[in-house]
TrEMBL record:
Keywords: Amino-acid biosynthesis, Aromatic amino acid biosynthesis, Isomerase, Tryptophan biosynthesis. Pfam families: PRAI. GO terms for biological process: L-tryptophan biosynthetic process. It comes from the Bacteria. Belongs to the TrpF family. The keyword Hydrolase does not apply. Residues 6-201 form the N-(5'phosphoribosyl) anthranilate isomerase (PRAI) domain. The lineage of its organism: Bacteria, Pseudomonadati, Pseudomonadota, Gammaproteobacteria, Oceanospirillales. NCBIfam families: PRK01222.1-4, PRK01222.1-6. Signal peptide: none annotated. The keyword Isomerase applies. PANTHER family: N-(5'-PHOSPHORIBOSYL)ANTHRANILATE ISOMERASE. This is N-(5'-phosphoribosyl)anthranilate isomerase. InterPro entries: Aldolase_TIM, PRAI_dom, RibuloseP-bd_barrel, TrpF_fam.
Length: 207
């Protein structure tokens, strides 16, 4: 079984980024969605990213953002990878100078296979819990049995993951990667080093 990659999202401070990297995280997520309690400005993200060691992927999370603002944040922060978490169309996602993956919220009527096949150039599909009016970061899990087995793209599993359920999630779903935010926080936007360490330990045990 391939090693499950880990993205720790909602980074707002350098010390949290460093704790995630030291624990073995593969990617760090920065939320550029102002209504989110985990929002970070492009300037602060740039300062954090400038201090990171090599071989750590930085991911920018957007929700229905203007193309000009996405371009500005790519340039300002020096982001590697884009995550679109709103209602963006494939044509929108493909216009930028960075690879991307698309987040899908598991609403009751979603056809995951059909949706993932619309985004032909996405590097992966992220599946997250659904709550009406909330684009992500709910801290809620969804029924993993709803995930189709025939997805054509790598799967990133999000939604309510923490050190108590991530090993079970990996065993059942066998995703390419897991994405955690609230499950490793002391409070919204502030990470907890011990929770990060526990989470990464559980991921390692599941592989």
């Amino acid at each position: 079984m391939m090693r499950t990659r880990v993205k720790i999202c909602g980074i707002t401070r350098y010390e949290d980024a460093l704790a995630a990297v030291e624990a073995g995280a593969d990617a760090l997520g920065f939320v550029f969605y102002p209504p989110s309690p985990r929002y970070v400005t492009p300037e602060v993200a740039a300062q954090i990213i400038a201090q990171l060691p090599p071989l750590v992927t930085t991911v920018a999370l957007f929700v229905n953002e203007t193309a000009d603002q996405v371009e500005n944040i790519i340039k300002t922060a020096g982001i590697d990878l884009l995550q679109f978490h709103g209602d963006e169309a494939p044509e929108y996602c493909e216009q930028f100078s960075r690879p991307y993956f698309k987040a899908l919220r598991m609403s009751p009527d979603i056809d995951v296979v059909a949706e993932s096949e619309r985004f032909t150039k996405a590097r992966a599909i992220l599946l997250d819990a659904y709550r009406p009016g909330v684009p992500g970061g709910t801290g809620e899990a969804f029924d993993w049995d709803r995930i189709p087995a025939n997805l054509s793209k790598p799967l990133i599993l999000a939604g309510g993951l923490d050190d108590k359920n991530v090993a079970q999630a990996i065993s059942r779903v066998q995703p390419f990667a897991v994405d955690v935010s609230g499950g490793v926080e002391a409070s919204k936007g502030l990470k907890d080093r011990s929770k990060i360490t526990l989470f990464m330990k559980e991921v390692a045990c599941a592989n």
